[in-house]
Design a protein that fits this description.
Elements: E1 2-7, E2 10-14, E3 18-20, H1 38-46, E4 62-73, E5 76-84, E6 95-96, E7 99-101, H2 108-120, E8 128-132, E9 136-138, E10 143-151, E11 165-172, H3 173-176, E12 182-187, E13 194-201, E14 204-207, H4 208-222
Parallel strand pairs: 4-10
Antiparallel strand pairs: 1-2, 3-12, 4-5, 4-7, 5-6, 5-11, 8-10, 9-10, 12-13, 13-14
């Protein structure tokens, strides 16, 4: 790995070989308005194909879940993200969704809700789970992640748990769709290179698994191809 570049309060490691990737799936212009309202979002998720599973599932790999909390405010859907605390041993300063590892005997949807309550104080009873996005695997930890989409009744009153979260971010989906916010890079040498996705927000770079979940969500909501 080459020396990383700083994105907000994090250092992003960069491999020696990187090349530009494909444009955003919605680059030609959104063809649907699922990102504008919760009603349209529900419709887009209801018509979406089943989530793609991770090849690690069923192999004994560690399972994790994240919650993708969405709410409507000022005529637009927003997503809740967190910036991880700087004292954490892994992924310090990175932007992520509330989430974590599955406990024994726990359903993964309950994992996502429990972690959101622990990290940002989100009341479980206020979350309506409405969908599931593609499952992801993490290369470094040999685990897989299941993202659950949850709708909130309005802008929530949240409080970061300082042991895990430095800051809570409320990001309009429209901001993520703006030109030049999204980019794809190919890391590594062909044929072993792989796509890495980024969203450049003011003061923060969203990348890795979190960016992959956002890309999946936005492609669904704009009716564009993402796989």
């Amino acid at each position: 790995m080459a020396e990383g570049r700083r994105g907000g309060n994090q250092v992003i490691p960069r491999p020696v070989a990187t090349t530009p990737g494909r444009p955003a799936p919605w680059a030609a212009g959104p063809r649907a308005d699922g990102w504008r309202s919760l009603a349209a979002l529900r419709a887009a998720l209801a018509s979406a194909p089943p989530p793609e599973l991770s090849p690690l599932e069923g192999t004994g790999a560690r399972a994790s879940a994240v919650l993708v909390p969405l709410y409507e405010h000022d005529g637009e859907v927003h997503v809740v993200l967190t910036r991880r605390a700087q004292h954490l041993r892994s992924h310090r300063g990175e932007v992520s969704f509330p989430g974590g590892g599955q406990e024994p005997g726990e359903a993964l949807a309950d994992t996502a809700l429990r972690e959101a309550a622990e990290e940002v104080g989100l009341e479980r009873s206020s979350v309506e789970l409405v969908g599931e996005l593609d499952h992801l695997e993490t290369v470094t930890s040999r685990s897989f992640i299941v993202p659950f989409v949850g709708i909130l009744p309005g802008r929530p009153s949240l409080h970061p748990n300082p042991t895990e979260v430095e800051r809570i971010l409320h990001v309009p989906l429209g901001e993520l769709l703006e030109p030049d916010v999204f980019r794809e890079e190919r890391w590594g040498l062909p044929p072993m290179d792989r796509p890495i996705w980024f969203f450049e927000l003011e003061g923060d770079t969203v990348w890795g698994a979190t960016a992959a979940v956002l890309r999946n969500l936005l492609a669904l909501l704009t009716g564009t191809e993402w796989r």
